[in-house]
Give the backbone structure.
Amino acid sequence: MANKITIIGAGQVGSTIAYTLTVKGIASEIVMIDINTQKALGEALDIRQGTPFCDPVTIYAGTYEDAKNSDIVILTSGIARKPGQSRLDLAQTNVDITKSIIPQITKYAPSAIYVVVANPVDILTYQFYKTSGLSANQIFGSGTILDTARLRSRIAEYYKIAQQNVHAYVFGEHGDSSFVPWSLANIATIPIDEYKQCLTDDDKLIPPLIHDEVETYIRKSGGKIIERKGATFYAVAVSVAHICECISNAADTTLTVSSLMNGEYGIKDVCLSTLSVVGRTGLKGRLTAPLSDKEIVSLRRSADCLKDVIKQIRF
């Protein structure tokens, strides 16, 4: 199936997403748009010269007009997070950047599904919904997809089991107020805290999995990577490519993308991540997974943190 994807922003995240989409064969046409046209031209050319060894794809630098008939638009434009800086510190600067982009891109791609990746992703997703005039099913953020991947990779590493056997999620903000609903976490259908006692291999010495330590690891991972290498882009690119693949698939998929809450868990008028159903027409609904009372409190607290920021932002 033909699949045209436009990426706004040709920085490290945007260009790595373009590369990942190319290697995985998810798109048949990729348009890269950046205010720095030379950067976009260079990134597109570099990727294009490797395409003889990939599935057929056309990739080029373009303008907003070239986004016409895009199936998916990925928004990565914004100032990158600096060492020691929180995602929410970026809020007003990146809201202003997104404000200038929204009318230009929606003019040419009004029917596309929009995936917001730039940070703070929950705030920018909310802004996009509130100011673009597009329907809610067309707009969602990458949310806690990356956090969820970090969680699963950590649990898989801990128990020395394939990542695909781990089913666990991160809910809430893509940031400091996120949390893991441990009541939903399992390995091959076995509740996470019961997995150790179900093992018949007595030689395996596995200490107890400490929930708070795992959650701290997830929240701090991005900052540690930025501190060590200056930016994060590989894992987020794979995560966003996975979202695009799920949109293109015939079967619907549950993902922890950031989308507008409409009363689920008593939360309204804010974008954050719970379990959503994603398919070819975009956001198709939300699963209200059974959370414990404590987990619902954590989710509402995360929503309140985001609302406090929204109150301070000029959209």
